[in-house]
Each structure stands twice: as structure tokens, then as C-alpha cells.
Amino acid sequence: MLLTEEAMKTAIILKMLSALEYDVFDPSEVIPEFTADVGIKKGEKVDYAIRVGGRISILIECKAPNAPLDLKHASQLYRYFSVTDAKFAVLTNGYDWEFYTDLDEPNRMDRRPFLTFNLTDIDTTSASELSRFRKSVYDVGAILSTARRLKYISALKTRLKEEFDNPSDEFVAFFGRQIYDGMFTANVRQEFAPLVKRSVSEVIRDRVNARLKSALLQNTTEAPEEDIDLEEKSEIETTEDEWDGFRIAVAIAARVIDPSRVVIRDQRSYCGVLVDNNNRRPLLRMYFNSPTTRYLGLFDGEVEEKVAVKAPVDLYRYADRICATAEKYKSAT
């Protein structure tokens, strides 16, 4: 675990900026400890400012690793947003990331982020939106065109998760009244609360199972990577580190290809990450079974090359090579 804010900046923030194609060694492009000329309290600064096309475009404020992100402790972001040309502000602790803009009022940073994700649990939608911040494709208009939709979808998803985990009286009553014939009293609502929660869980489970069944049927058309019987297959367990590595691989590959094309396929000796669920298109392999010695298999050359790594976050050190591999499959069908 990273212990200091400075270590986090070096190990995660700068590598993330590099993966987004910004030159972290050019202080005119990635400006550390940025201070504005006017309208700012003396000595106040933000951790990084990113200049794109000669203008300050993105502000980044870093907090201690795993510290809760609270805008009360990032007031300088608000002030800098209003006195610079920046259209986007980022608040992060290295793992959790929040992206802000000015959808509600011009030149005034919104209170609610339009994009949030955890780097160790990033989904394909967030990875795709993050890829829009790459230097080579950076387009303020294109990002803003989806920011409003993302902002409210994110808020709705958060609210729905809360309702699914702990259904409110209103949520229970909304569905209960549609199927209960009598008076929907407080006692009836109390009876329905666990039923609604269980029903939500079963609907989600059924939909996940349907997707898995569809994926398994699709896999039967692919050549098997290893001849593993069902008994051996059931013994394979994908670890949290392997899932973290997969999510990071998706985020990196999103610079080049649609992140939905990247899938995970675990094997007995390694955990593979494939493009198009095709074992002839390996993106990388994670040899994480040993608690002391770990390797990453890379495929940007003619044959697989194994390099030593310590943790999933080390994948960012090889972002360029992973992207080079993804580039080979970019136009594949």
C-alpha cells in the first residue's frame, strides 16, 4: 500500500498522465504545484495543471492515498477553476477519481462530478470516457457533450445502489402498491421490504447469469487455449489482484480500442487478458499465482516476454507496450 501522498503522485498520478499521452517530463505541459497569477490566496496552489494547445485545460488536486474525497478540503480547485481557462478539474487520492466541469453555471465548478471511478474497479464505460482525455484526441466539446448525461447517470446509479441495498419506504411502496390488492399499510410495507430487496437481488442475478450463459455459448466457437477438464476448471479462482490487473489493462487499452473488446480468461498457470475473447489475440498474461514472484506476459513482440512485477498497479509501467499490442488488433474483426 502506498503510504505517502508524494509516493502516490509518482506511482499513480504521473503514470496515469503518461498513459493519457501527456509528457510528464515537460514542465510546460504538466505543471506541478501550479499557482495562478491573479485572484488566488497567497501561497495557494493545485498539485498539477495540464496545458493543452497552449492553454491551461485540466486542474488536478491530489489527496492522501485512500483518504475520502471531500470538496470541503479542495476549495482551491473552485477558486482556480474560476480564474483560469481550465474546463475540467480532477480530485483524486490515487485510487478514487472525480472529474468536474461547469455544467450548472459557466466558469463555476459544479458541486457534483460528471465522472467517478475507482482505479482498481474501473468499468468499461468509465474507461472509455477516461480515454477521451488523451492528448491526441482531447476535445472539450466532445467531452462536454456527454458530461451532463454522465453526471446524472452517475447520481442515479448511486441512488439505485442505495435503494437496492436498503430499500426505502417509498421504494417499497412504489412496487408494493402495484401488486398488493388491499390497503398498503405500514405493516404491509414492513412485510414487503425484505421481499423487494430479495426480488431486486434475484433480478440482477438472473440477468448476470443470462449474460454469462451467452458468453459461454460464444466461447464454444473459439479454439480452446488449454485442454482443461471441468473438474480442473472449477478449481481455478480469479484473485482480487488479477481482477485489479484486468481493470487496469482495460483502462490502458481504452486508449487504442473499445474497452468492451477486452475480456479476462483465467487459466491454471496464469490469468489471461484477451481482445475479442479470442485466444489468438492475447493482450497480456498475469502470472500472479506465486506470493513472492510475479510476472507480466507482454505480446508487443513476436513472442511473449515476461517481466517481473510486484503489484497490479505496475501494469502502468508497461502502458506503452500494452497499447502497442492492442494496436495490432485494432482493425481485427
UniProtKB/TrEMBL annotation:
Residues 26-101 form the Type I restriction enzyme R protein N-terminal domain. One of its GO terms (molecular function) is endonuclease activity. InterPro entries: HSDR_N (IPR029464), UCP035009_HsdR_All3000-type (IPR017035). The keyword Signal does not apply. Keywords: Endonuclease, Hydrolase, Methyltransferase, Nuclease, Transferase. GO terms for biological process: methylation. It holds the Pfam family HSDR_N_2. This is Restriction endonuclease or methylase. It comes from Hyphomonas polymorpha PS728.
